[in-house]
Write a structure and sequence with these properties.
homodimer; binds protoporphyrin IX containing FE; Dyp_peroxidase (chains A, B); peroxidase (chains A, B); Deferrochelatase (chains A, B)
Chain lengths: 447, 447
Amino acid sequence: MRKTEMNQQTNQGENGNAEPRAKSEKEAGLFDKQLSRRDVLKIAGAGGLGLLLGGGGAYGVMAAKETLNHTVRKTSSPAGSRAPFYGQHQSGIITPTQNFLYIASFDLTTRSLADVRKLFQAWTEAAAVMAEGVMIGDTNNHLNLPPSDTGEAAGLSPSRVTLTFGVGPSFFDSRFGLSGKRPASFGDLPAFHGDALLPEWCGGDISVQVCADDMQVAFHAIRNLVRIGRGTAVLRWMQEGFQRTGPADPAGGTPRNLLGFKDGTGNPDTTDTGDMNESVWVQPQDGADWMRGGSYQVVRRIRMRIEVWDRSSLADQEQTFGRHRDSGAPLGLKDEFAPLDLNAKDSSGQPTLPMNSHSRLAHMDGKVKILRRAYSYSAGMDTKTGQIDAGLIFICFNRNLQKQFIPMQRILAKSDKLNEYTVHIGSALFACFPGTTKGGYIGETLF
Amino acid sequence: MRKTEMNQQTNQGENGNAEPRAKSEKEAGLFDKQLSRRDVLKIAGAGGLGLLLGGGGAYGVMAAKETLNHTVRKTSSPAGSRAPFYGQHQSGIITPTQNFLYIASFDLTTRSLADVRKLFQAWTEAAAVMAEGVMIGDTNNHLNLPPSDTGEAAGLSPSRVTLTFGVGPSFFDSRFGLSGKRPASFGDLPAFHGDALLPEWCGGDISVQVCADDMQVAFHAIRNLVRIGRGTAVLRWMQEGFQRTGPADPAGGTPRNLLGFKDGTGNPDTTDTGDMNESVWVQPQDGADWMRGGSYQVVRRIRMRIEVWDRSSLADQEQTFGRHRDSGAPLGLKDEFAPLDLNAKDSSGQPTLPMNSHSRLAHMDGKVKILRRAYSYSAGMDTKTGQIDAGLIFICFNRNLQKQFIPMQRILAKSDKLNEYTVHIGSALFACFPGTTKGGYIGETLF
Ligand code: HEM
Ligand code: HEM
């Protein structure tokens, strides 16, 4: 497919397969469109599509198509580019990983499915305009009203912001009459060996994952969704994550986690539609029609014992992952992307990849794959221990939890050498809907 | 002064006045030097200057000069550039604001001034190599030792990282025999009207402010300083801040705070040496010789009541600051940088800038200036209220606290309309040392 064709396709809303993966930054031209909220401020205010929601006030969402022609401009800056919102799949799953994450889980305070539908309609409209870098709503310049957009992203570029919505297992209890729609593979996670889960980091009826290359743009998005949700949904938890400044840093490559190792090397290829259909997207034959083209998301908050890690030798650290710290290559090899050879032995006949090494165990038989999309977190000092509270917000997407994440995590929880240095303190599970097209809304297949 | 001359001067360590301010990004060429930690990994390990510290192990800090010739390369990416560490003043004060902040306060666990001196010597060496984007220490490739650098910034650019060190008023108690050295203007802050300070965000014997354009680079810096400090100093608190992705975003300008308003407009001009000597840098005639060329830093953690703010009208919001939300201009005017006219009246004879508006009150008589260098924070959900915990990490630098911050905050605490929407929950004060030159260390004028 030629570039212009792909570009057009992207504009038509088929973002799912057209998105380049992080490794091929040459293709970043695909995301060239850039838009400043400041330009939009000037043309906002007229002819918006108003949506009345909840008790908190009037929130209008300006229709994006009215403004795009005036404001789209070209740039080669990745920070300034758009990730298309509409498409067969939701964005933020196979979208090349952005630098910042906010992920929030909500509890519904309503028992009416109609309210939930209205919430997702309003969230969809807001998400679509934010993805274009447009201010939310049409009351940003009325002196006597609260502005419909909180304004802290005014003047900033879209920054490839993506918003990804899902529902948790608890959504299928008796409240909304949808218990019959719960997919067979989608129940609460089993308890895993070593779990030290804190209720404040677990569960939730519905979820939003926001990713962007600008932390302020990401904050703005989650904050405005929380605001729109008032009266219908309350926050249950919110987590913030980061990785190194990717595309902007010419020295970039696979990002490193806070244990200093490259993280993401063994991920499946998001540009390979076959692989994605195999491991990520729910297929027609999987049942639960409303999830076709969607994906199941696992969120684990994993604290790192960085002080313990910092005292262990380089050899210990490399044995833990089964990879070299410097290059990211499997032990004994030089190329980061060399395949793991589970049969390789060293001169004394020992396996080169230790039996309890993280990469080896997570690799399983080489056929079970998940799509990881993790971020680092640091959350100040732990007031109990006086140590830095930091770790990994582990996020992965699966076509079927029973066949992918659950058996994998069972093995890791039992045998992974990495467990000496980590502790799982949060856990949540969401069924992330398929995408939608203009005029539709995320969740329409279910509600 | 011609550019090449300035460039040389910068290399010679006179960073203080040569740094461009955020507004003049054209001058960013000054910070062109870029260096990848990955290149350095290869040449590290030989001939380093070893420093033995505390009980936690051996930490070597490689002398930067041995590697620079091999690794410095040119780029036009602001994310990749260096902020010089050595100079008359510490970096991170008048350095154009980077995108991310980590600020940590420590309590000393030693009573020996020699230990404190060793700590600052080791911190200085580590800071200098991190500012160059170099890995800390010379044991990063020894299999049997813990790596001297924790590695998560390997391969990343220096990202204009700055490290700024200070001591709090408590440092001058009886422990180190330095009570006679406490500057007359440097005592604990008075209690201000409305203060709701939480001990966990207050005080500290010593401090490090880390700023960088890459959050992972900033995290790496603070984490490694914490590590080096083990056995001598323990964390008291650590705060994380952000602003929008500045230089990388072509739509950038004055950043907005989380109330949606441009923040920083009224700051003095950091490129004006006269202004900086007047308001920021301690002068010979100020006493406390060891602070000459240093500056007094105030850190206030100010929580925003964003839900209340979000319900107030645009008129209310603009009256609160005395400025327009969209343009940042003083009320009634169009230009963001137009001077505040305290005498302006509207058609009904009322002051255009409300008497209790934040800008008006903070402007005082127009002669008292502080240098603000604030960052936004978001810290997940407040588990008590279910609301987003977000606000401003207010940081400012002063030549004399008694004449600048304290009278200003007295007025604001009493009358500022902004107080309806904010609450001060943390407070700390540090005397930030003057800079140092190669071979010296930060703090040498005092210890
Ligand atoms: C703090 C916790 C964790 C850290 C620091 C971590 C880090 C890493 C690292 C450094 C690698 C090697 C590079 C790569 O292939 O990306 C890796 C591989 C992998 N990890 Fe993790 N991981 C963590 C938790 C988990 C969990 C909970 C799972 C799933 C249950 C998981 C699944 C995988 C998989 C599937 C691979 C690729 C294996 C292959 O090569 O096929 N990881 N991880
Ligand atoms: C959450 C708390 C605060 C917020 C959101 C805030 C925000 C702002 C904003 C939007 C402006 C106008 C634009 C500008 O000139 O930068 C401003 C000005 C200013 N603020 Fe604040 N501020 C806060 C706290 C403080 C505090 C605690 C002080 C000092 C005690 C302070 C001192 C100043 C000064 C000196 C100015 C410039 C006034 C002038 O034009 O001369 N601010 N602030």
